[in-house]
């Protein structure tokens, strides 16, 4: 994450990275920077292969536009990056998304406290002003990231925790009871289970009810657009799964056509030892009946049957979501990291940057070219 408490950025030049037009030399420099940054931010986790990072950067997102800015130090090597994503015009609910931009990035530790982060924030402010964005959202889990975001005047609005659980510690007999007590027959519900892919015609009927359940998730004081699923997003994701491998698992409990409970997860061959559990949710009128336990137990069994090589489950939860955190603790999930979501507006960014050293002529010229 960013850290920047000193000095000017007179020797820093920013460049917009266009993945479709970048030369192989620029790709090599960008990948080297991103690889080092990931290793610094996640020192105990696997570092994505350069080929996977390149694929992710080149992949078209039908719902979002991503702008990437890289900062070069005096020797010409890229030492920091800023990424900014916002909703594409013409996509569903675009007006509700219009004020918001998600931003992430940082500066290599050896180059921190030299004004590089301020330089990247200037690029973010220029982008926000050019596209009419007024609120930037950042996520960080590193202490220096929290310190920097607080220093620039961003406000923490929400906290989440990434939890991890080893399959070796699961009590499968207890999970069988969870399925018996909280799954479909016990409540007169109908189960709808999908492994690998969900047919698009079925997904089309689920977009609205799943979006409603997702939108009911607690997000603290975060200012945000509606949290929505979109069929085009699924099409893009499934096309990528078809090309590179991977599975999507979905467990539903239905009362007629109403979704009473849901749990979905995904698996990728690039990290074959783990599953990523996504949304687990229960409609309000069905809460307190053990349905969340039922669908989570069914999901774990489903993944076990299809991918016995999985040894680790990964999920994220809002820190204020006490019921789900309690269920996860019973399963054996433990906190791996805590994320803070911060927001700052263009006025706040302008005020902070007014206290930083001005651009040098070299920097201004580079910024104009980008």
TrEMBL record:
CDD domains, A to Z: NAT_SF
GO molecular function: acyltransferase activity, transferring groups other than amino-acyl groups
Residue ranges occupied by any N-acetyltransferase domain in the UniProt entry: 205-356
InterPro entries documented for this protein: Acyl_CoA_acyltransferase (IPR016181), GNAT_dom (IPR000182)
Coiled-coil features, chain-numbered ranges: none
Pfam families linked: Acetyltransf_1
Protein name in the entry: N-acetyltransferase domain-containing protein
Organism: Variovorax paradoxus
């Amino acid at each position: 994450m960013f850290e920047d408490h000193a000095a000017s950025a007179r020797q820093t030049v920013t460049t917009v990275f266009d993945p479709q037009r970048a030369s192989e030399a620029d790709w090599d420099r960008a990948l080297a920077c991103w690889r080092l940054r990931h290793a610094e931010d996640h020192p105990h986790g696997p570092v994505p292969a350069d080929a996977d990072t390149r694929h992710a950067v080149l992949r078209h997102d039908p719902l979002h536009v991503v702008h990437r800015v890289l900062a070069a130090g005096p020797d010409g090597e890229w030492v920091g990056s800023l990424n900014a994503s916002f909703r594409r015009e013409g996509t569903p609910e675009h007006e509700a998304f219009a004020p918001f931009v998600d931003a992430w990035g940082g500066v290599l530790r050896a180059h921190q406290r030299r004004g590089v982060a301020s330089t990247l924030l200037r690029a973010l402010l220029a982008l926000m002003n050019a596209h009419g964005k007024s609120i930037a959202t950042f996520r960080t889990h590193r202490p220096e990231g929290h310190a920097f975001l607080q220093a620039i005047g961003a406000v923490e609005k929400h906290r989440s925790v990434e939890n991890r659980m080893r399959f070796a510690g699961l009590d499968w007999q207890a999970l069988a009871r969870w399925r018996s007590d909280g799954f479909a027959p016990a409540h007169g519900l109908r189960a709808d289970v999908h492994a690998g892919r969900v047919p698009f015609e079925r997904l089309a009927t689920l977009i609205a009810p799943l979006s409603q359940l997702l939108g009911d998730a607690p997000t603290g004081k975060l200012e945000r657009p509606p949290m929505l699923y979109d069929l085009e997003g699924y099409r893009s994701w499934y096309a990528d799964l078809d090309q590179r491998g991977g599975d999507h698992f979905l467990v539903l409990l239905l009362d007629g056509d109403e979704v009473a409970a849901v749990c979905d997860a995904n698996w990728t061959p690039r990290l074959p030892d783990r599953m990523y559990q996504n949304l687990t949710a229960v409609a309000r009128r069905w809460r307190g009946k053990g349905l969340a336990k039922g669908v989570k137990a069914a999901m774990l069994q489903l993944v076990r049957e299809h991918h016995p090589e999985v040894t680790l489950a990964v999920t994220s939860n809002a820190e204020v979501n006490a019921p789900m955190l309690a269920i996860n603790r019973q399963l054996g999930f433990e906190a791996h990291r805590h994320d803070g979501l911060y927001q700052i507006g263009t006025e706040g960014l302008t005020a902070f940057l007014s206290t930083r050293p001005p651009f040098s002529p070299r920097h201004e010229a580079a910024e104009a070219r980008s």
